[in-house]
Amino acid sequence: MDFAFTDDQKAIQALARQIIAARATDERVKQLAGDPAWYDLELWRELARAGLLGVALAEEFGGGGLGMTEITGLCEEAGRCIAPLPLVSTLVLGALPIQEFGSGAQKQVLSEVAAGARFLTAALGERGHVDPARPATAATKAGDGWVLDGMKVCVPDADRAARILVPARTGESSIGVFLVAPDAAGVSLEREITTNGEPQFTMTLAGARGEPLGDPAQGERIVRWIERRACLAQSALQLGISDAALRRTVEYATERKQFDKPIGSFQAYAMRTADAFIDVEAIRSTLYQAVWAVDADHDADRAVEVAKWWACRAGHRVAHSVQHLHGGIGADVEYPIHRFFLWTKATEYALGGASVHLARLGALLAKEEAA
Predict the structure, then answer these.
(1) Measured between alpha carbons, how far is 276 from 313 in angstroms, rounded to an integer?
(2) Is the alpha carbon torsion for 153, 157, 161, 166 positive or negative?
(3) Which fold has domain 7-118?
(4) Shortest CA distance to 229 belongs to which of 131, 300, 316?
(5) pLDDT tens for residues 290-348?
(6) Which helix (H) or strand (E) holds 178?
(7) Which of 16, 89, 125, 355 has the CB geometry, 3.0–4.6 Å to 77, for a possible disulfide?
(8) C-alpha torsion 338→123→131→315, nearest 10
């Protein structure tokens, strides 16, 4: 069994690193943090010109016809530079499920996504409802269409998305996923700011029309499909963030001196960076094991939960370690390392937190044991 990446996968990730690192400098990221638009749309278009936005889309839509492994590598490189890009929202929450479950007419937007001209997203979160496949939002048949009522929270990129994928109840024990235009009648958006400064939205639906994605009574399968891939993409961001933060800390430790010696030579400092390195590699190995299982269409539930737990728990430990190992300058908002801490926490919250995934993993193991 060969666990190595293919030459094409290595080349795609190397190209992504080259493009993102050249543009998403510390100065550029700091500048964008104060911009209401927040996203680096120039970098987005450059990734589109390089063919990277369509890497997992079919060739008929201008894509590369590849899979989650390649998207994961792209997200890892974005996390490494904490580049503000709508990769997860547009590519994973929107484009991939439309490609997998959408009609021919619905898929026409994918060519524009690959070209960097259209954005997509999904509204999975609700207050008081942890499971996106158990929404309170309801969809009601109205003539030859559907209307939706409810509220979604923490919707990324909602203001610029061409369509938002919205899970909603279609019966007592069934849900559907619907495509909703953010500027449609009955849709209102309220802007929120997350821990790392990313704008997200509370979306209120009051009789808003929605177009079913796939079978409106079989939406749970679609939601689980989206949720699995979105969590892997978020975990890849966490890997890039943690890896880059640790590397910066090691560089700092070789330059910063105390008692005429680099602080990295002190045993306590070296032990903590070693622990952080182990955590980063644990995120990496569990993530790519889960990505492989998803791409190979294996039963990936356990692997995905393990990867998410490591991304949350180990990412949390690494973020606190690099912050502490920088001393006072780690809390200086003019110094870039604090942004890695904020992005780590935002990603951890987006994933749901380590305890949630530990409980889910325990339930999976208990179910397997009972079977």
Answers:
(1) 11
(2) negative
(3) Butyryl-Coa Dehydrogenase, subunit A; domain 1 (1.10.540)
(4) 300
(5) 999 999 989 888 999 999 999 999 999 999 999 999 988 888 888 999 999 999 999 99
(6) strand 175-180
(7) 16
(8) -20
What pLDDT does residue 2 have? 65
Q: What is the CATH number of domain 221-370?
A: 1.20.140.10
Give the C-alpha separation, 136 to 159, whole Å. Answer: 22
Question: How far apart are the C-alpha atoms of 113 and 122, rounded to whole Å?
Answer: 15
What are the tokens at 284? 């990496």
pLDDT tens, position by position, 268-286: 888 999 999 999 999 999 9
User: Which residues, listed in sequence order, are joined to residue 151 by a DSSP beta bridge?
Assistant: 204
Taking every pair of Cα atoms in the chain, the longest distance, rounded to a whole number of angstroms, is 79
CATH top-level class for 121-216? mainly beta
Question: How many alpha carbons lie under 13 Å from residue 193 in its C-beta half-sphere?
Answer: 9
Dist. CA 263–CA 254, nearest whole Å: 7
Distance, in Å, from the CA atom of 17 to the CA atom of 241, rounded to the nearest integer, reads 13
Instruction: Write the DSSP string, 285-339.
Output: HHHHHHHHHHHTT---HHHHHHHHHHHHHHHHHHHHHHHHHTGGGGG-TTSTHHH
CB 240 within 8 A of CB 72: no
